[in-house]
């Protein structure tokens, strides 16, 4: 798969994950030729639209969402100008890619897939207290996610069964997206990646792994075998949401 094809696959995969998260909150979006978009406000920290191709039409895109203050757009190719529509850049990031079943360091943890609401609650509590949490995730991750056939909530457990690391894996055509990587206090994302990658290698050995990161999290992902493959940008509508 070429780099451009990987970016398109990563963008569509991420849009599918955003769609699944939105559905779990009772919000239905739709895929179009240029973007996935939701007409009603999506859950916190999730975009109202995700572009799927370069050079999407900004006016058509913002017409498909509630573009009031607080709206956000994931510009998957970092090529839009939404300033005239009242948006500002929230952050820039990089799509990342890791080859299928690439070797990873041993984690010393047991990795599994969360399958029941009680286990999801324990996972969300661990995430809330981890380096990647603290954002209200206990209420964000709802049991309806467990019914989505393309979504896999991954937990890394210590010898006593406690959730000490985790992530979300999203399967789509040709790739596996990984997001929401976290580790319990004092561990950091570097603790999480080995068990997450061990688990996805075991469950999905034929699929390349994609996602996006920025800042220190990007540096850590590269340390664990990912390569940056292209920029993305998240825009937010100025004003109070």
Write a brief caption for the model.
By secondary structure, the protein is of the alpha+beta class.
Overview of the structural elements:
With 241 residues, the chain is an alpha+beta fold. The protein folds into 2 domains: 103 residues; 108 residues, Aminopeptidase. The protein is 29% helix and 29% strand. The protein is built from 6 helices and 11 strands. The radius of gyration is 17 Å and the shape is globular.
Q: What is the overall pLDDT average?
A: 93
Order of helices and strands: HEEEHEEEHHEEEHEHE
What CATH architecture of the largest domain do you see? Answer: 3-Layer(aba) Sandwich
Give the % helix.
25-40%
Q: What's the number of domains? A: 2
Molecular shape: globular
Q: What can be said about the biggest beta sheet?
A: 11 strands, mixed
Radius of gyration: 17 Å
Strand content: 25-35%
Which segments are poorly predicted (pLDDT under 50) over 5 or more consecutive residues?
none
Q: Would you identify the CATH H-level superfamily of the largest domain?
A: Gcn5-related N-acetyltransferase (GNAT)
Number of helices: 6
Tell me how many strands there are. Answer: 11
Secondary-structure-derived class: alpha+beta
Q: What strand line-up does the widest sheet have?
A: 1-2-3-4-11-5-10-9-8-7-6
């Amino acid at each position: 798969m070429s780099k451009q094809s990987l970016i398109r696959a990563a963008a569509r995969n991420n849009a599918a994950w955003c769609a699944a998260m939105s559905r779990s909150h009772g919000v239905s979006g739709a895929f179009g030729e240029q973007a996935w978009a939701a007409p009603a406000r999506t859950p916190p920290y999730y975009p109202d639209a995700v572009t799927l191709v370069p050079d999407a039409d900004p006016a058509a895109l913002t017409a498909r969402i509630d573009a009031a203050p607080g709206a956000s757009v994931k510009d998957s190719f970092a090529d839009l100008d939404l300033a005239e529509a009242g948006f500002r850049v929230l952050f820039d990031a990089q799509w990342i890619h890791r080859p299928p079943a690439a070797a990873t360091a041993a984690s010393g943890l047991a990795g599994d897939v969360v399958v029941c609401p009680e286990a999801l609650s324990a996972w969300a509590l661990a995430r809330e207290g981890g380096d990647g949490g603290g954002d209200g995730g206990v209420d964000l991750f709802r049991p309806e996610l467990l019914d989505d056939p393309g979504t896999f909530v991954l937990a890394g457990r210590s010898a006593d069964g406690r959730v000490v690391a985790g992530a979300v894996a999203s399967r789509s055509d040709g790739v596996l997206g990984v997001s929401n990587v976290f580790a319990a206090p004092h561990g950091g994302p570097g603790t999480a990646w080995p068990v997450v990658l061990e688990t996805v290698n075991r469950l999905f050995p034929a699929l390349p792994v994609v996602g996006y990161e920025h800042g220190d999290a990007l540096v850590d992902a590269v340390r664990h075998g990912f390569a940056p493959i292209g920029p993305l940008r998240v825009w937010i509508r100025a004003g109070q949401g």
